[in-house]
Write the structure tokens for this entry.
Amino acid sequence: MPKQPVSENPSPAALGFAMPAEWEPHEATWLGWPYHPTDWPGKLDAIRWVYGEMVRKIAPGEIVRILVRSRGEQALARRYLERARADMRQIEFVMHPTNRGWTRDSGPIFVRRRRPRRETAIVHFHFNAWAKYHDWQKDRRVPETAAKLLRKRLFNAEHDGRDFVIEGGGIEVNGRGTLLTTEECYLHPTVQVRNPGLGRAEIESTLERYLGVTRFGWLAAGPVGDDTHGHIDDICRFVNPRTVVLIREPNRRDINYRPLAENWERIRDVRLEDGSRPEVVPLPMPAPLFFEKDRLPASYANFYIANAAVLVPTFNDPNDRIALGILAELFADRPVVGIHAVDLVLGFGSIHCLTQQQPR
């Protein structure tokens, strides 16, 4: 297949592209098959079964495109998915070596336009392993592989001629022009700095150009244990164009109480694209989970909105039922189902972190 051309100018926004909301119709969901044993110490086999359950719930409504490193890994994945009774007619395997399986962050981020003709394209945001790990080179090429496979236009995200880095888990959009993120993730001066030298104004202007957003809300920080240093998808999520869920920790002795309380203060100042305030619905936190001495970033906000269902991480916790009930009331158009994520969160991520939607 010929090399996919990278589009430079004009920007996606200038051409009428914008990032749609997650609840809008998908053509597919992208996943990366798990193989890295250090991502889930001693639990890799259990994680494969979690993937099987996720795919079983997603496949009735859309294609599931799964990145695999080899034919042997494809055969292994097929065996697990067949035993999980996933609809194999809806599954496509994509041969691409990866460093990890967190496809929300390394996978293709799609934008869409309706005029002059309906079209989707991919923005390459140059994943660098959250500015933390040295092995990201294979993951960074996933958007290129997706563009070639799908024959999509590929936009190279840059600022002043330099690659611009964000991850899919670090941004949350309502599909109408508003984007949420956190200062901890993208404005911290010394920790996991994705774009050295860029401040709020430069980051906002670049996201405007490539995602077609016009209004920004900056929350403070995420829960302790988040390996990404503040991804928004563990904190605050749009459930419709005007409503967000925001996690809350009522226990003042919990280490998460202060940063999450600050997010509740900041959300009062957030405005949507029309200048109005979003409706804010509180979402509980599960009781603390640990791996050895490390606090894990367990959060009900890390759900994924597929065509056929909303997949919500659960943690064998009394608040599982409360969180599922809140989200079931907010998503009346599709079932809300729990996916056991106690093993999954050992990798410092959960359901949303593993998935990336491809809009129809």
Summary: The first strand starts at residue 6 and ends at 7. The domain at 6-359 is CATH 3.75.10.10 (L-arginine/glycine Amidinotransferase; Chain A).
